[in-house]
Amino acid sequence: MNIGFIGTGNMGRILIDALLESEATHPSTITITNRTLSKALAIQADHPLITVEHTAEEVVNKSKIIFLCVKPLDIHPLLIKLKPQLTQNHCIVSITSPISVEQMEEVVDCQVARIIPSITNRALAGVSLTTFGESCNRYYRSYLQHLFSKISRPISIDQDITRVSSDIVSCGPAFFSFLLQRFIDAAVQETNISQDVATKLTSEMVIGMGKLLESEIFTLPTLQEKVCVKGGVTGEGIKVLEKELGDLFVHIFQKTHLKFDEDIEKVTHQFNF
């Protein structure tokens, strides 16, 4: 299956590298382009069998599945531009959350899907969020599920939980890496531990905790129960968390949804213009 990528920024490159490392596809099947062509050429330097084209139209002409790895407000103009080249044998896959498959189907006559990846997919782990348009046939659905099962656990989501699911899967790594960095900084500030040692210990702790959850030895609640011995040190720390975290995460979801609503309003104006 020939696969195209229009946009090779952070997430586009992550997907390409992950798909190749997992051997989900072969570099000779991939055609890419980018507004700044040097970014696409840098990927080709690492994977010489990948084809780099100068235009999005050329990518479509050489591909059956085309990933649109561009900003939300760039999707509609790109679909209008590509519409003459797209046929029923093509499948467009958007990786951005504010645009629904129904909106894309209103513009183009090809098959449509939306798959929201996570940076964790680069480690061939984590979740990818899938939504298929009514136009997307069984063959393409199966193939895309197979492709992403090589680098993630694909989970189908409905439109009404798109933002919160993306907050957890895609934004979550950034949110929790920020919290962990603050955790490390506080340890260095309050004790004699070095930044390097605190970072190493924290990183290994997170990896170990992930393996416990992956193996289903413990759940998140039972992890707390096992570590938090009554009257112990951990319990004192939990008391601080309970007191000071407050509605922190509620405010995070409120803020991300507010931005999401703003993006949807701008995108809707484009599609309804």
From TrEMBL:
SUPFAM superfamilies in the record: 6-phosphogluconate dehydrogenase C-terminal domain-like, NAD(P)-binding Rossmann-fold domains
One Pfam family matching this protein: F420_oxidored
Protein name per Swiss-Prot or TrEMBL: Competence protein ComER
InterPro entries per record: 6-PGluconate_DH-like_C_sf (IPR008927), Aminotrans_II_pyridoxalP_BS (IPR001917), NAD(P)-bd_dom_sf (IPR036291), P5C_Rdtase_cat_N (IPR028939), P5CR-like_CS (IPR053790), P5CR_dimer (IPR029036), Pyrroline-COOH_reductase (IPR000304)
Organism: Priestia iocasae
Domain named Pyrroline-5-carboxylate reductase dimerisation: residues: 164-259
Taxonomic lineage: Bacteria, Bacillati, Bacillota, Bacilli, Bacillales
Pyrroline-5-carboxylate reductase catalytic N-terminal domain residues: 3-97
Superkingdom of this protein's organism: Bacteria
PANTHER family documented for this protein: COME OPERON PROTEIN 4 (PTHR11645:SF51), PYRROLINE-5-CARBOXYLATE REDUCTASE (PTHR11645)
Record family assignment: Belongs to the pyrroline-5-carboxylate reductase family.
